[in-house]
Write a structure and sequence with these properties.
Belongs to the glycosyl hydrolase 79 family. By secondary structure, the protein is an alpha/beta fold. It has 2 domains: 195 residues, Alpha-Beta Barrel (TIM Barrel); 134 residues, Immunoglobulin-like (Sandwich), CATH 2.60.40.
Length: 404
Amino acid sequence: MLWRCGQCWKSALRLQQASLDKLYNFADCAGLQLLYSLNALQRNSDTCWNSSNALSLLKYSASKKYNMSWELGNEPNGYSDLGRRGINGSVLAQDHQQLRNLLQSVRFYSRSALYGPNTGLPRKSHAQLLEGFLKNGGSMVDVVTWQHYYTGRRVSKVDDFLKTRLLDTLNDQITKVLKIVNTHAPGKRVWLGGFGPAWAAGTSNLSDTFAASFLWLNTLGMSALHGIDVVLRHSFFDYGFSRMVDQNFTPLPDYWLSLLFKRLVGQRVLGVQVAGLQRRPRPGRVIRDKLRIYAHCTSPRSQSYVRGSITIFIINLHRSRKKIKLAGSLRNRSVQQYLLQPLGAEGLQSRSVLLNGEPLQMVDDESLPEFRPRTLRPGRTIAMPPTSIGFYVIRNINAYACRR
């Protein structure tokens, strides 16, 4: 799993070496790969990137043998908003060429991965920046990255997070980015290099509540359908209102959702048909369903399920209960349910979660609870409560696509 940290692109402050040591040790102890974003706002009079601080950091990290990946800047389309001179795709490509040369000059990082350019939503000017970068320097990066935020600062109520046209914006944006990449850098992998339910650190009393979990799971499911195999989330701790744990490290709804997803959902995507309609999105087609169903092979890392099992995950945006009946070879199979609902009088704005009707909470400061499924008898209809999320594992089905 990747974890990003970087010098804040809103300031020119350097992380002290002691801080980098703590950062790397945290990632190493947690079993995470560290992706470090270098400050791209330090520029010479000719607008070219000033890499002196970056070189110092590379040499220090190499002396400590820190195994890290690298990125240059964040949302370069927004530099002019910070009172800096804007850059075009050609300059952005030159910056990445310079960084690639630096990495090769520091022997320890000569083969390190470089990701970028991490542009914003592919609107006209942003898309042109990405296009210009790929034309002039697409070969400089190992993976193309970009960011998606569903909303701006104007979101103020729960219903805004439940609009199907809002969730469908991701399908449109992914299609645009993939078209640009396939035109100018065919075969290059694409990652969603930044995600948040709302831009600019999120929205108070919404982005860190159960209401935001619909957007998060929609992002994971839709990205996988399009072949995007890595999604980087903003953020884990302390930044704004889109964080996954609070100031006391108490898990918030999106943390529990992410943990369930990692444990139950594998990388192989399966096709799903609902009432005879193909659910895989086609380019240019907007799906405005309030009931969203995805299917994957169950994660091979799961200790509870054998290879060949299938995991279905469902988003119910309806304000009423919806019933789903499995068909075909799934019809008479036993199903294990992991149903997530908000806990407490706050409803969808709750920061606590129920799993199959029981509160999800840490056992102690270091121990996660056991995720106990509810077993549904063979042939039973799946009943999704209003505005809920569910994971359903069909085990021991020995699905051919999931045996490999």
